Automatic annotation (TrEMBL):
Belongs to the glutamate 5-kinase family. The gene is proB. It is found in: Cytoplasm. Its EC number is 2.7.2.11. This is Glutamate 5-kinase. Residues 280-363 form the PUA domain. It holds the Pfam family PUA. ATP binds at K13, T172, D173, T214, G215, G216, M217, K218, T219, K220.
Length: 372
């Protein structure tokens, strides 16, 4: 496991249940402990980024509502109230320890657009240079269903890619990944280390009726998949004891540790795979799958079998096998309507169908990232 000597940039995500009492009021002791730890780590040369939930919960408490919002607009209103209160609380606590915090609110579209991705990256890097701790949350006040990250677990993983972090820690209401629901099954065992995320593990995390499905473990597995696939290890640990962050950074056996996978993709490829939302799907034959996944080739029109979606040139798309498995994502050189016309053709035949060949390939390998 990584040690403090290897960690220079850390992303810590904290969930609502860690920050807020059952009464709905802020858990000031835990917030204070968490802030103190992050400031102390920064004094030891580790740049810390905090991804924090809790805005809707604090807004609900402040307005004395008995629910977290029944409609999207109600949740957005609660977030608008709670986000300011939450950030004020963080600013006060960081200030007490002689540190400065800065708020960043992101939506998926901020990471789907390459320029906004780079702007966010540059802003965070500049804040870290100024010894400011970025406090990041999803922009719940403007997000809609199509652009929501869905959870701050995925947001934390995407942020880790955004700023090239060395480790992600998810502090949550469980102390790791178990083989079954430990509440109902006394024989359930905690999984201390996950060398690689398999389909079986993903199925277990999303199994109906299990604690991992209803308790949010599925989203944490997805976050781990995002981070580790980009070469960044991730730990799931209990948020009840923020002091565990020290143990994790020091390499002690805490929670469930997901090994980083070997990658060669630079930040552009990571952005392609995880940051952008695909606007369509290109289905390819087995030969094209082999060429892309094993030989690192570009996607030629001859390998295209089917096109779905109404995407345009320059849009992000999924690349799927004929079995329906998404094998890669990429930036299309052609609109969907044009790909439909040239699918199955050799490159030299494109001119006979389209007026002037813009590109020899449908998706260039430099604009493509493998998902498996």
């Amino acid at each position: 496991m990584e040690t403090a000597n290897h960690i220079r940039r850390l992303v810590v995500k904290v969930g609502t249940s860690t920050l807020i009492h059952a009464s709905g009021k802020p858990n000031l002791r835990r917030i204070n402990e968490l802030v103190e730890i992050l400031v102390d780590l920064s004094h030891n040369g580790i740049e810390c980024i905090l991804v924090s939930s809790g805005a809707i919960g604090i807004g609900m408490s402040h307005l004395r509502l008995g629910h977290r919002g029944k409609t999207l607009s109600e949740k957005q209103a609660l977030a608008a109230v709670g986000q300011g209160l939450l950030m004020h609380l963080y600013e006060r606590k960081f200030s007490e320890f002689g540190a400065t915090a800065a708020q960043l609110l992101l939506t998926r579209d901020d990471l789907a657009d390459r320029q906004r991705f780079l702007n966010a990256r540059n802003t965070i890097h500049e804040l870290l240079k100024l010894d400011v701790v970025p406090v990041i949350n999803e922009n719940d006040t403007v997000s809609v269903d199509e652009i929501r990250f869905g959870d701050n677990d995925s947001l934390a993983a995407l942020v880790s890619i955004l700023i090239d972090a060395d480790l992600v820690i998810l502090l949550t209401d469980v102390d790791g990944l178990y083989t079954d629901n430990p509440v109902t099954n006394p024989l359930a065992e905690k999984i201390h280390r996950v060398p690689a995320i398999t389909e079986a593990l993903e199925e277990m995390a999303g199994s109906a009726g299990s604690y991992v499905g209803t308790g949010g473990m599925k989203t944490k597995i997805e976050a781990a998949k995002i981070a580790t696939s980009a070469g960044i290890p991730l730990v799931i640990a209990s948020g009840e004891k923020p002091q565990l962050v020290y143990d994790i950074v020091e390499g002690k056996d805490v929670g469930t540790y997901f090994n980083a996978q070997a990658v060669t993709a630079h930040s552009r490829k990571s952005w392609i795979i995880y940051g952008a939302r695909p606007l369509g799907t290109i289905t390819i034959d087995d030969g094209a799958v082999e060429a892309i996944t094993r030989k690192g080739k570009s996607l030629l029109p001859a390998g295209v079998v089917e096109v779905k979606g109404d995407f345009q040139q320059g849009d992000m798309v999924d690349i799927a096998s004929t079995h329906g498995k998404i094998i890669a994502k990429g930036i299309s050189n052609y609109a969907a309507s044009d790909i439909d016309k040239i699918k199955g053709l050799h490159t030299t035949e494109i001119d006979q169908v389209l007026e002037g060949r813009s590109y020899d390939v449908v998706i260039h390998r430099d604009n493509m990232g493998l998902t498996h």
